[in-house]
Amino acid sequence: MEYVIEVENLSKSFGSKEVLQGISMKIGRGESYVVIGGSGSGKSVLVKCILGLIEPTSGVIKINGQDVAKLSQKELFKTRLKCGVLYQGGALFDSLNVIENVSFGLIYGLQVPQKEAYKIALEKLEAVDLDETVAKLYPSELSGGMSKRVALARAIATDPDIIFFDEPTTGLDPITSGIINDLIVRCTKEMGISAVSITHDINSLKHISDRVGLLFKGKIIWEGTNKELLATDNPYVVQFINGNAEGPFTTQG
Amino acid sequence: MGSHFAELSVFLDRIGRLFIGFLASIGSLTLFSIKAIWAGITPPYYWKQILQQAVQIGYFSLPVVGMTALFTGMAMTLQCYAGFSEFTAENAIPSVVMIAMTRELGPVLAALMVAGRLGASMTAEIGTMKVTEQIDALTTLSVNSYKYLVFPRILTGTFLVPFLVLIDDIIGILGGYLVGVYYLNFNAANYIRNTLESMVTWDIVSGLIKGAVFGFVICLMGCYQGYFSKGGAEGVGRATTNSVVTSSIMILLLDGILTFALF
Ligand SMILES: Nc1ncnc2c1ncn2[C@@H]1O[C@H](COP(=O)(O)OP(=O)(O)O)[C@@H](O)[C@H]1O
Ligand SMILES: [Mg+2]
Fold first, then answer.
1. DSSP H/E element including A195
2. Residues B185-224 pLDDT 10s
3. Which of A12, A143, B126, B257 is in the most buried spot, having the most CB atoms within 10 Å?
4. Ligand 2 centroid vs A40 CA: distance in angstroms?
5. Does the beta carbon of A14 lie under 8 angstroms from any beta carbon of chain B?
6. ipTM attached to this prediction
7. Is residue A126 part of a domain?
8. Mutational test site, ligand 1, from A12, A14, A43, A216, max ligand atoms within 8 Å of CB
9. Chain B interface includes A80 (CB < 8 A)
């Protein structure tokens, strides 16, 4: 199997606080891998380490077989263009309107001329069920669901190989969540993009995952397929899926 | 004896820590500015961002900066008159206003206003971008945030604050003229002649040099505080206060140092 992302023994501490303590995982091409875990368990830190936004304390990260620590700044930026990211809060640029946001990576990263970039951006907006009526709106004028869609359109604009979704449905109502989940499945399965998602939304998890890893106390303590997830009697997984107050998870998680 | 020694060592320990903290922040500020300048002088160049900042600094700051200069020039002329008329030295007023504006008040007032207006908004803007992951988004969309956010601000600050200083000088002197001629009944032609006679190129140039240094410091501080702010909206608020306070202190401190160095 060909892996798009390989993480070996990744650790990250902030001062004396050990957030990640030796994480290893491999994500195959076209696969949708979901990391679940409680709030503050280090899910975002894990993704930011993979993207090179945070420097790991130790460990090896490979994207498309390349060790990112050994890449030059220029190569790293090139590799990042192969990665789309949907940030937790959307992270749309406040000072730019929708079309400028969506075309940003095309214009600045891939040096696509503006006119063509806008054309591609409109196509990507259509792919997330938005049309040109939103193109001139600013992020502050969008609803939560709409800004998630725009952020998704921006993430897929440069035709990435891998997309990272950081809590794509957190803060959305169940119906909008469902729509976003569908869009994620569409983006990954139909376009054949590999995906790494973070979530603690069980519905979303069942919907979008091929494989799941449970992050607890800085380690992946359980890993399995979507089907195994629902069948397993691992007490951690069972508690997480059912949202029980009692179980091996302590409240500190 | 022993307890004195213990007290002294605690005291020295504190001083040492403060000093090391100070050096560390000077170090990281220097590193930050080197990164920004290096990123900025290597292609591609983000002209649009540079132009936007130029308009922000050079144009939208004019009203506040001009207004402070006008009132300061007016008030100074009145104050000088109150003092100088006791010695019948009223004729010295135009040249005192001239020297004070060009050497000191022009650069310092313009810089303080810019620190309050622009330094604060830079920190708030960049800080918000930081805590809402917009800076991470820049990076993953393969844009160097130092080049895109920091360099345009530092560059335009360094080159356009001197321009504001010049405007400040002119408006301040004009304010003095208005009070002198229309309120204190100086002879207009005499006032203008006295003013022009006391104009010294180096006074003006030294003020512009100060302006460039202040502009650099304000924008560097504004970006730096924003870039390293953390902890949500509250953290951004704290960073904004820090930015204005530190750059104001730096302006006054550097003004002293530069005045020594330049005269
Ligand atoms: N830049 C940072 N500096 C210090 N601590 C951090 C930083 N980023 C994250 N952390 C800490 O790491 C832990 C995990 O954070 P995060 O990955 O955001 O959690 P989540 O699983 O909810 O996404 C938190 O306790 C957080 O306080
Ligand atoms: Mg998170």
1. strand A194-199
2. 889 898 999 899 888 889 999 999 999 999 999 999 999 9
3. B126
4. 7
5. no
6. 0.91
7. no
8. A14
9. yes
Q: How many domains is chain A built from? A: 1
Backbone angles phi, psi at B72, to 5 degrees: -65, -45
DSSP-derived letter for residue B7 is H
DSSP summary character for residue A90: B
Q: What are phi and psi of A54, to 5 degrees?
A: -125, 135
Q: Check residue B86 and report its DSSP letter.
A: G
Q: Where are the alpha helices (DSSP H) in chain A?
A: 43-50, 73-81, 98-104, 114-127, 144-156, 174-185, 202-208, 226-231, 235-242
CATH number for the domain including A7? 3.40.50.300
Residue B144's closest chain A neighbor by CA?
A77
Phi and psi for B144 in degrees, rounded to 5? -75, 115
Range of the domain at A77: 3-82+160-252
pLDDT digits (tens, 9 = 90+) for A122-174: 999 998 889 889 999 999 999 888 999 999 999 999 999 999 999 998 888 88
pTM confidence score: 0.89
Give B91's DSSP letter.
G
Q: Is residue A71 part of a domain?
A: yes
Place of tokens 């600013």: A138
| Pocket residues: Cβ below 6 A from ligand 1 | A 14, 19, 37, 39-45
